[in-house]
Each structure stands twice: as structure tokens, then as C-alpha cells.
Specification:
heterodimer, A: about 110 residues, mainly beta, 4-stranded antiparallel beta sheet, B: 7-stranded mixed beta sheet, 11 strands
């Protein structure tokens, strides 16, 4: 069975600081994809970043980077230079074959 | 290009009623899926489809049926609504193994 774990229910960060949101996963399949999504209070799901299991380099998308440590089965999201608009729920997800499974999420609050 | 659309946005049902949540996409995506989101539970996969005529069960399929007769549409049927099915339902589509496009969600309350 595939499992995604996000151990931080809530996080605080000050504006302009960097923050790391943790995600660990468990799968025996060698081919998988890891995703991060943002869900603001308005409710929509916004795709942030993707990392394939065979990708050699860590994925980056603007202020978002994914710290992929395959041996530790972790895929942490790093947000640099936090902004007030980054306050939201963040979900880690893993796709194995055709099923995408999500973690329970981390609520991030960015303070001035 | 409307992306992924879901109807209705809100719905209230009585226990035992049946209904269909509609999902459509105009991006010619092969992969479509349904999730439910409950407080503190994240999103859980109900059913998914990798193409017209092909569907499979996700993590929480009980009480729901799906079919995929066209590439564009992927309706989710609640056979006999129960209060435990009160949730927000998201439909998503994808053309590859990377980005999934989510619909705006349907907020369902079963009394």
C-alpha cells in the first residue's frame, strides 16, 4: 500500500523567511511521482511542484523547491521568502501507477 | 477553454436519496478522478479512470459508482446518500503523470 505522511498539522513563519514543510512517503514501486498542492481558504487546489522518482535533480519552481531524499523517502517542500499570500493548506501527494494519494496536509500561516 | 467544471457547487440531500455529481473537462485528458475532502483527512481517492470505458476503485469507493462513456465526462453517482458522505468532492483530470487539474469542488451535505 502507498502511504503519505505529513507530520506537521500547523506551521508558522514570518514574512520573508524560508519554511520547510515535511513529507515522507512509503511505496515499494520504483516508479512514482511526488507532488505538492496548495489549497487557500477559497478552496481550490493549486499545483505547485512535481518530482519524479527517477529525476536526478531536485525540482524547483520559482520560490518553491522540493528537497527529494530518495533513500530517506522524504519529499519536503521549501518555500523561500515567504509572503502573506502563502498562508494556506499544503498537501503532499504521491502517484503510483494511476492512483494519486494525498497526505493530511499542513496548515501554514505567514505572519507580518 | 473551461478546464474542469463541476456541478452543482452546493447540494443538500436527505439520507437515502441518490444523486449524480457531474464533472467535465475540455482538455482531452485521458485520466480523470474523484476525491472527497473531509476536515483533517486530506483528499481521499474515490474512483479514477484512465480512459473512456475504464474505471477503477480508489481508497474509499464504497457507496459511489462511476462510469466513463466519453473522454470529457466522469460523473460520480451516490446510490443511497448517508450522513457520512457529507464532504467536499473534487474532480480532477490529467493528460500525463504530472500535473492534475482540479475542478472547483462540490460541497455536499447529507441530513
Amino acid at each position: 500500500a502507498q502511504k503519505i505522511t505529513q507530520t506537521q498539522p500547523g506551521m508558522f513563519v514570518q514574512e520573508k523567511e524560508a519554511v520547510t514543510l515535511d513529507c515522507t512517503y512509503d511505496t515499494s514501486d520504483p516508479s512514482y511521482g511526488l507532488f505538492w498542492y496548495k489549497q487557500p481558504s477559497s478552496g481550490e487546489m493549486i499545483f505547485l511542484i512535481y518530482q519524479g522518482s527517477y529525476d536526478q535533480q531536485n525540482a524547483t519552481e520559482g520560490r518553491y523547491s522540493l528537497n527529494f531524499q530518495k533513500a530517506r523517502k522524504s519529499a519536503n517542500l521549501v518555500i523561500s521568502a515567504s509572503q502573506l499570500g502563502d498562508s494556506a493548506m499544503y498537501f503532499c501527494a504521491m502517484r503510483v501507477r494511476d492512483a494519486l494519494n494525498f497526505g493530511k496536509g499542513t496548515s501554514l500561516l505567514v505572519t507580518p | 477553454n473551461a478546464g474542469v467544471t463541476q456541478t452543482p457547487k452546493f447540494q443538500v440531500l436527505k439520507t437515502g436519496q441518490s444523486m449524480t455529481l457531474q464533472c467535465a473537462q475540455d482538455m482531452n485528458h485521458e485520466y480523470m478522478s474523484w476525491y472527497r475532502q473531509d476536515p483533517g483527512m486530506g483528499l481521499r481517492l474515490i474512483h479514477y479512470s484512465v480512459g473512456a470505458g475504464i474505471t477503477d476503485q480508489g481508497e474509499v469507493p464504497n457507496g459511489y459508482n462511476v462510469s466513463r462513456s466519453t473522454t470529457e465526462d466522469f460523473p460520480l453517482r451516490l446510490l443511497s446518500a448517508a450522513p457520512s458522505q457529507t464532504s467536499v468532492y473534487f474532480c480532477a483530470s490529467s493528460s500525463n503523470a504530472v500535473e492534475q487539474y482540479f475542478g472547483p469542488g462540490t460541497r455536499l451535505t447529507v441530513t
